[in-house]
Design a protein that fits this description.
Number of strands: 4
Order of helices and strands: HEEHEEHHHHHHHHHHHHHHHHHH
Distance between the termini: 44 Å
Number of helices: 20
Strand content: under 5%
Largest sheet: 2 strands, antiparallel
Bound molecules: N-hydroxyamidocarboxymethyldethia coenzyme *A
CATH topology of the largest domain: Citrate Synthase, domain 1
Radius of gyration: 23 Å
Shape: globular
Structural class: mainly alpha
Helix content: 55-70%
């Protein structure tokens, strides 16, 4: 007798050609609001989400509240003695669309100081995990552990829930999450890689600087943290982490449940985990191809083809929306080029060589619609240079930054009373019927 798994394997093998045929031969057939290939292929380009926090143009890249990355960095008040804004000033800007005054920024910094005290049961929950758990498991566990004190959940279950004011408790939870997540990330870093050597919060420092302080980093790294968290904050609403957070919150799950779900999506290798994959790929390339020789474009080309021929994706390249080099990549590259030492770093030079080579190889390969690098192709090398070499931690850094965008979005979701999200699904047989009829009449 065939096992359940064997029966299923046969059913899947029999079904696959039907899906392939629908996409290949009838992909452009319209079924109401989208085409068959959009229905099967992850709803690419289907306009069903609204957000004013950021917008992603395929050619230009991200705009936060209408401003490009350079315009955002230029406009916002800077951290003391730095060329970069504080994360707190960016949070004010993301939430309101207004460039804050220094006084307004100082008020947020002070507010976050009060909010950033993490309850001790969160440390207990994280410490209870096996030490070799992935740091994203630790981060999402910490996020979920905080749920019991959710102000939104208490408001909902308190019996006087009011749709008009519900956003106020989302704002409270969202602000607590943004203030606390770097503290939790630093705790995880110290627990996993520094033998649980924990460092106290410095109450005089802004969020980015305090994170650098808590993981034992240098003065220079304070700007790396500020830049990194801002660049990774938001990428309009359709990406997996932002969309998941929005979706889960649309059921009136509180911000802790919602962002925990978002973090689990961020942990996927096609999304946020790509930053660790890039470092892994690059170091394996060095190990395999360049043990005794300097890297060359020919060797990089060979390694890229080996990856593609093995049926794997080249991490850090391609994008579901972008059709040009990601400006977040360029912004980090510029940081590298303007930082003495980093611009001559061996690994940065290799990453630059991959940038010169991969788009040509991916174009020749002919599958990826966008052969250009995304944010993840450049972020790891900066962390590596500053001594943060535990690359399985890189997605946690992404998760700290992404909290800003996700939390700003769901605060507005509640402010505007957006509905529970519930797209409609159809069966393969329905698609085949509509394909034969030339569309859904
Ligand atoms: N290397 C090899 N093949 C690639 C590729 C890459 N970097 N990017 C896309 N392709 C392939 C796809 O796998 C797909 O192949 P199949 O038809 O066999 O399924 C084909 O090209 C068409 O894909 P696409 O339409 O260009 O891309 P998608 O919108 O489907 O996917 C991804 C977008 C980002 C997931 C994809 O480009 C990818 O896997 N890139 C590598 C992983 C990565 O860098 N992810 C991070 C993206 C940015 C981000 O979210 N950061 O958090």
């Amino acid at each position: 007798m065939a096992t359940l798994k064997e029966v299923l394997a046969q059913k899947i093998a029999d079904h696959r050609p039907r899906t392939t045929k629908l996409v290949k031969e009838f992909g452009k057939v319209v079924i109401d609001t989208c085409t068959i290939d959009q229905c099967i292929g992850g709803a690419r380009d289907v306009r069903t989400l609204v957000t004013d926090i950021s917008y992603l143009d395929p050619q230009e890249g991200i705009r936060f509240r209408g401003k490009t990355i350079p315009e955002t960095f230029e406009a916002l008040p800077k951290a003391k003695g730095s060329k970069y804004p504080t994360v707190e000033s960016f949070w004010y800007f993301l939430l309101t669309g207004d460039v804050p005054t220094q006084v307004q920024v100082d008020a947020v910094v002070a507010e976050w100081k009060v909010r950033q005290i993490v309850p001790s049961y969160v440390w207990d929950a994280i410490r209870a995990l096996p030490r070799d758990s992935h740091p994203m498991v630790m981060l999402s566990t910490g996020m979920l552990a905080m749920q019991k004190d959710s102000k939104f959940a208490a408001f909902y279950s308190g019996g006087s829930f009011n749709k008009m004011t519900a956003w106020e408790t989302v704002y409270e939870d969202a602000s607590d999450i943004c203030a606390r997540i770097p503290i939790i990330a630093a705790f995880i870093y110290n627990l996993k890689y520094r033998s649980d050597f924990q460092v106290a919060i410095d109450p005089t420092l802004d969020m980015g600087a305090n994170f650098a302080h808590m993981i034992g980093q240098t003065e220079q790294y304070k700007d790396v943290a500020r830049m990194y968290f801002i660049l990774h904050s938001d990428h309009e609403s359709g990406n997996v982490s932002a969309h998941t957070t929005h979706l889960v919150h649309s059921a009136l799950s509180d911000p802790y449940y919602s962002y925990c779900a978002g973090l689990c999506g961020l942990a996927g290798p096609l999304h946020g985990l790509a930053n660790q994959e890039v470092l892994d790929w690059t170091l394996k390339f060095q190990e395999k191809y360049c043990k005794d020789v300097e890297p060359t474009k020919e060797l990089v080309t060979k390694a890229l083809w080996d990856t593609l021929n093995a049926g794997q994706v080249v991490p850090g390249y391609g994008h579901a929306v972008l059709r040009k080099t990601d400006p977040r990549y360029m912004s980090q590259r510029e940081f590298c080029l303007n930082t003495p030492g980093l611009k001559d770093d061996k690994l940065f030079k290799l990453v630059a060589m991959i940038f010169e080579t991969a788009p040509g190889v991916l174009t020749e390969h002919g599958k990826a619609k966008n052969p250009w690098p995304n944010v993840d192709a450049q972020s790891g090398v900066i962390q590596w240079y500053y001594g943060l070499r535990e690359w399985d931690f890189y997605t946690v850094l992404f998760g700290v930054g992404r909290a800003l965008g996700c939390m700003a979005n769901i605060t507005w979701d509640r402010g505007l009373g957006y509905a529970i999200e519930r797209p409609k699904s159809v069966t393969t047989a329905m698609l085949e019927k509509w394909a034969a009829e030339g569309g859904r009449k």
